[in-house]
Specification:
3 copies of one chain form a homotrimer. Chain A is mainly beta and about 375 residues long. Chain A has 4 helices and 27 strands. The interface of A and C includes residues 85, 303, 305, 307 and 308 of A.
Chain lengths: ~375, ~375, ~375
């Protein structure tokens, strides 16, 4: 069954959309609910949020904020974080160019925030144009929102959005963003397709800014990644290079340490990145492919809970430098006319020692192939 | 009969306004319908569109986008174009200052886009202030929207909007924008009145960015303008100077060639500019007055359909250079306190050989008075 | 009795809120009405306005514009002014960075406009970031709006809003803004509380941009302030230094003269600033405390009615210079983690000779303690 919630071309906008298992017209194996809400007040006036509950899995997504995933919960494990930004900010109230291009920070509080697609990374000038922090896509409302629920095994539930990044003379990007849940699985999947509808090749960049706070993040929590090459993002990160994978308690004044990682994958490029708690009995494993997303930014922002206690595991085509620095690194890919690029991410909820240990063993197996190279200096002096 | 659809001072907002011939209370000679819609989804969330149908003529106008005319159709001839920007972008989602001042391009898809009134033209600094591309008026929602329908011949239908460009210390402009249709005529008229409500004289600029794509635009289509002086806008346009008036097929990588034209008019200043298809059996003639709009920008953007196959015939007070370059050209006029300026444009749908030939003959007659001066170099080196 | 009108966290949004004395459920000593409206059309599309009437006092407040007070009226005396900006501009249509950072001017028409809290003052760069004119708070919609009406003497009516200025990595400010009316009093009070919810100390600034036009402002109207030190804001103001306190008739081309004042207060820091008409039989006295708001900007903008005939009495932590100039003046205070700062302002309507004379006598008494120092040169050369 397919349910169209929003479609700008077809003139569809079901602002009070709500669907329960009993509305499906067939037996669905687990509890099910999808609810569309429009928020009011503050900067969230008019912002849309969809809450999708499939069995023990709950996801909240904001179509207004580029199909960003606000948080995910499976059983009693929440993925997400507590940002100082409390509201689901309607991009109508955003001004990305603020204060030299950091306006993006006024809306940033998602579990999954996409940074792209014309550019990503730090603000600054590139080729005579001012690029604002982390691109625009997270602040573009979805033009299409669609829910589909399969009526036969595996009963896949898919929430899809199309977010257009279009600017005359600059880009004609359409991005289909699919979020899949299979009843009974402790996972959800993101399958994004970037399509260049123009007739010129265009540069593009994408970083999946995936952010995790409590309860996974705590003193002694560990990030496990199979590392081919590790380097500090900047001078500040050099201090923390030796303890990059271990998470401290919330630390006033810590601000952030950022690390550039070139991960290892298997022969197909498949890899994973892991965050687990101190007791190693809860964690999240993020699975993706290095052919799609060759580099990983580790964003260690273990500041106070009030200012943001959060760690980011951010696979991308690119690091977090301004685009002008990344061409020389080979991290500004191009997409030809009519071409598309797929990006697949799976988030596994690890709910006990065994699941954590198994994921760590996978990382170890990938790492066994090659030892890590650690660079003492940043790739880019900026 | 007069119908008030929106009036901010009077507190009127008839968001579901709809009017049919049978609602008029008198016999109207042709089919008639006016429908007000509010769009949803994507960046068009909340954008208003009015569709006005009078006999065979259909116009769509967006009050939210400064009364811009999205497209016009008479019988089977459509005026307008297919921009990579697909939605009617609510200015709430615009940020004109983006990427060095080109945010305007994220909303640009109209048949008639007004560029003004504090400034127009390319982005850049003038007198210590950053001016964004093509001014602000197209991204200011109308404060008043009014429909009037005459109950006696000629049964003129007028859709009026008032768009205010007001900024403390900078300008107190009110612009009345009237769109007129006479039943049975293959034409529509724009009558704009810019009023300076302040008590200081102010500089102003306006370009009518009128844009035409298929079906008129095609390989072999011709632009006919009585030319007093022609010059390339910049280096890029020098290459195309000899073929300025002939339209190529969609051409990947063509991007754009822009030409500055000082047109010829009759003794009253009346003139016309024409675009006709290759077979010379369909076209549009734009009639206006050189005392109001002394210069014409020809914007030849015959790129691919995906990226924008479009030609602009753009009468204005000014060329498309940044304002700082146009004072020396005498193209930054001033409007005194309490004064108003009128701008009248008529768009004629030319539907057969005879109509096209007659309009071409008019151009030829104006041209007969004086031969064209062609400058090899741009007026401005920028 | 407490009435929640908006609360983003609780999901409350009573968009059609209306309350009359007869709805209160108890005897209220004077006429009472509170009405919430959503405006439509132009740039005020979606803007909220609350009109609060308590006996002879009427206040209008826009939650959408940071709880700014549009105007106040007691009996037949209006406080407020007539800006060229006519609409209650929804911040969705604002772009503060426009034209080098003066976008704020496109929405400015309030009686009380708060300028803060990360910064205030003129646009320009400070510590590598572009600061726009007068900060952001006036263009942030309130996240909580609440009305409370006491059921026993003194029957205080309080309209409260919480406006959050939050930006990841930059600030975690919450500001509670309370507006109090006591039935029968010719006064209203503002009690604001700035709370730093972050865990780092932050710089902050606030100017209460209180603006008065006709009928108080007229030729011969006087500003009375107990002055410790007076200086011209800039070169322009030097010309008017000798006549700083006397208001001229509307004067074409006057633009503005701005004066920096360090006022005198009593032993508790309490002080007042007064504007009275030429006949000295009508006026407003603004009472506040110098420990909270140590400096006062006098903004003499006695230009034409069309462009803005208005005078500002603006107590603040800071003058109107860009923040980068004010650290050396000791006017960029800091607020520690978890701390709060209170700002109290009382506006008294002076309705006859006696009331004006009494307030003038208070000013004179404060001035008696010390003579004014007048500096011929601006504090800052900029």
């Amino acid at each position: 069954m397919e349910y169209l919630i929003t479609d700008t071309r077809a003139g569809v906008s079901r602002r009070d959309f709500s669907l329960k298992a009993t509305d499906l017209g067939f037996d669905f194996p687990v509890d099910f609910e999808c609810r569309h809400q429009i928020l009011h007040g503050g900067k969230q006036e008019g912002a849309e949020v969809i809450t999708l509950r499939v069995g023990g899995m709950t996801l909240t997504v904001s179509p207004t904020r580029g199909m960003g995933v606000l948080y995910a919960q499976y059983a009693d494990l929440r993925l997400g974080w507590d940002s100082p930004v409390k509201e689901v900010v309607n991009p109508a109230y955003m001004e990305l160019g603020k204060q030299g291009g950091i306006g993006w920070l006024e809306g940033f509080n998602e579990l999954v925030a996409r940074c792209g697609y014309q550019w990503t990374g730090h603000p600054g000038e590139d080729q005579g144009e001012m690029l604002t922090l982390h691109g625009q896509i997270q602040n573009i409302p979805a033009s299409v929102v669609r829910l589909s629920v399969e009526s036969a095994p595996p009963y896949r539930v898919r929430l899809s959005g199309r977010v257009d990044e279009r600017c005359f003379k600059r880009c004609e990007f359409e991005v289909w963003m699919h979020l899949d849940i299979l009843p009974g699985e402790a996972s959800f999947r993101i399958s994004d397709e970037l399509i260049n509808r123009g007739s010129s090749a265009r540069e593009y960049q994408i970083i999946y800014h995936n952010n995790f706070g409590v309860p996974l993040l705590e003193q002694g929590a560990e990030v496990c990644v199979p590392v081919k090459q590790l380097s500090p993002f900047n001078e500040r990160a050099k201090e923390g290079l030796n303890t990059w994978s271990t998470m401290p308690a919330p630390t006033a004044g810590f601000d952030e340490e950022v690390f550039n990682i070139r991960p290892l994958g298997d022969s197909e490029g498949d890899t994973l990145a892991l965050l687990r708690n101190a007791a190693a009995d809860k964690g999240v494993a993020m699975r993706y492919n290095l052919n799609q997303l060759p580099v990983l930014t580790l964003w260690k922002n273990t500041d106070t809970p009030e200012q943001g206690y959060v760690v980011g595991l951010e696979p991308g085509t690119s690091f977090a430098y301004n685009r002008r620095y990344q061409r020389d690194l080979g991290l500004v890919p191009s997409i030809g006319a009519g071409e598309s690029r797929l990006f697949n991410l799976q988030f596994d909820f690890l709910q006990d020692h065994a699941a954590v240990a198994a994921a760590e063993a996978e990382v170890a197996a990938l790492q066994a192939a090659q030892s890590s190279e650690v660079l003492a200096e940043p790739l880019v002096a900026c």
